Amino acid sequence: MELLKSEKFKLPTLYFISNRSEIKDLPIGVPFIYADVKTKQYIIRILEYEILYQKAISTGLPFRFKDILRDNGFDDLEDFWYNETVYMEYKTEDFDDEDFDFEEECDTVGEDKELFKEFVKDSAVYVDVQKLKDLNVFPVWLNKIEDAISTNIHNFAIFNNNMYNKKLEGMYGSLDLVSPDKNLIIIDISGSIPKAVSSTCLALSKNLAETFYADLLITGSKSTLYAYEELYKLDIQTIYNENGMDNDQVWFKKLVTSEKKNYKTVIVFGDNHSPLQKWNNKFNSGTKEISRKDAKEMCQWTINKLISFHVNGVNYNAGYSDFFSPLEEERIADWCKYLDNK
Q1: For residue 156, what pLDDT band results from cuts at 50, 70 and 90?
Q2: Cβ pair 213, 183 in contact under 8 A
Q3: Distance between CA 38 and CA 50 in Å, rounded?
Q4: SS in 3 state form for 23-48?
Q5: What pLDDT is stored for residue 341 in this prediction?
Q6: Beta carbons of 115 and 241 less than 8 angstroms apart
Q7: Is the dihedral of CA 223, 49, 339, 138 positive or negative?
Q8: Residue 113, Cα to own-chain centre: how many angstroms?
Q9: Residues 20 and 232: beta-carbon distance below 8 Å
Q10: What's the pTM value of the predicted model, to 2 decimals?
Q11: What would the pLDDT profile of 16-42 be if each residue is shown by its tens digit?
């Protein structure tokens, strides 16, 4: 456990924790980031970007973010491109489940290319971390400690009228700790996603999962579900190499159709690319388009609420939510800023 510090300027008070067991040592309401130890320098960089961006926005003047970064000593910026994916309707009704070989095992996608290290240097797109805070999935980031304590208590304790109260020696009720409903975070890391988006979401993924009590599903050339209980073992820098940067249908479909799961809330970061589409790569040869109707009928996962973070706005839900039939939907606007023209 240590206080995050920048060599360039003062950061907000924020503790960095890489050992999950240390979280219990922090008083409720003390702000912290839980992440892999190898990502500490990149977490600091993301916070530095946020401070400079918010300062630039507050002036009300036009600006070029890349120039601001370079003026503040960021002289190792990478040049990245991005494109907006085209929205497609999927109406194919014929689907042959026998065409899929779900038993195929796969090795790692490629050699370690330190993609996470490169992608975090992207200055063409900015992820507004404040939009994540506004979801109230970061109770430890709230402005008032009293609010954080209140949030934590209300999430994990209820008053049970039928409990026996030892002090009062009667059935007068008492607080009962409850297990919160599990949630799910889906992050698309395919090549069409702006690199600043995928790297920022991955850098914050452990903290998101910890504070939101969520499993983590990473989808690229293949899709992998990392259970909340196993996230402490996850090395964020290896995710690109384990899952690749193409798009997946086979592995995602296998996950959502092979076992019943129930999630209270699913947060999806992505673009229009969807597991309904036909993909042709190392792990998805022979796939066919799937209709939304068929996908929703096949899906064994039930969710109460879907929160979509689509990189191109709020006209559509992020593509890797297409299998789900949520009772409630919310689309987050203005969280992804394209900065090339500023």
Answers
A1: very low
A2: yes
A3: 20
A4: HHHCCCCCCEEECCHHHHHHHHHHHH
A5: 47
A6: yes
A7: positive
A8: 22
A9: yes
A10: 0.81
A11: 988 888 877 877 667 888 898 888 999
Helix (H) or strand (E) holding 131: helix 129-133
Average pLDDT score over residue span 108-125: 74
Residue 258, pLDDT > 60, answer: yes
Tokens representing residue 208 in the block:
């998101």
Q: For residue 106, what are the contacts with CB-CB under 8 A and spacing of at least 6?
A: 222, 282, 283
Structure tokens at 265: 């809330």
Read off the pLDDT of residues 135-148 as tens digits, 9 standing for 90 and up: 755 433 334 444 44
Query: Domain residues of the chain, as ranges?
Result: 1-137+181-342, 140-177
Report the alpha-carbon distance of residue 252 to residue 203 in Å, rounded: 22
The DSSP string of 141-189 is G-S-HHHHHHHHHHHHEEEETTS-BTTTTBS--EEEE-PPPPEEEEEE-
203-207, 228-232, 282-286, 296-300: segment of lowest average pLDDT:
282-286
pLDDT the model gives residue 181: 77
Distances (CA, A) of 314 to 81, 147, 307: 22, 30, 11
Q: Where are the beta strands (DSSP E) in 199-327?
A: 214-219, 223-226, 261-270, 301-310
8 A C-beta contact, residue 215 and residue 227: yes
Interatomic CA distance for residues 315 and 318, integer angstroms? 10
Amino acid present at 303: I
Mean pLDDT score of the chain, rounded to an integer?
80
Q: Encoding tokens for residue 256?
A: 């959502």
Tokens of 143: 């402005």
In Å, what is the CA distance from 62 to each residue of 51, 199, 234? 17, 26, 40
> Using CB atoms within 10 A of its CB, is residue 223 exposed (0-12), middle (13-18) or buried (19+)?
buried
The residues that bridge with 125 in the sheet, in sequence order, are 338
Q: Write the DSSP string, 256-290.
A: HHHS-EEEEEEEEEE-S--TTS---STT-TT----
Mean pLDDT for 189-206 is: 89
Q: What ranges in 26-144 are assigned the alpha helix state H? A: 40-59, 65-71, 115-119, 129-133
